[in-house]
Amino acid sequence: MKRVDDFRLRFGRKELVPIIVGGMGVDISTAELAIEAARLGGIGHISDAMVQDVSDRRFDTSFVKEKTKLYKHNIDNSDKSVVQFDLARLAEATKLHVGQTMEAKRGEGLVFLNCMEKLTMNSPRDTLQVRLNSALEAGIDGITLSAGLHLGSFGLMADQPRFRDAKLGIIVSSVRALQIFLRKNARLNRLPDYVVVEGPLAGGHLGFGLDWDRYDLATILAEISQYLKTEKLDIPLIAAGGIFTGSDATAFLENGAAAVQVATRFTVAQECGLPAKVKQEYFRASEEDIVVNTISPTGYPMRMLRSTPAIGSGIRPNCEAYGYLLDGNGNCAYINAYNQQIALHPDGKNISVMDKTCLCTHMRNYNCWTCGSTTYRLKDTTRRLPDGSYQVLTTEHIFRDYQFGVDQQVALPE
Question: Domain 17-404 falls in which CATH fold?
Answer without folding.
Answer: TIM Barrel (3.20.20)
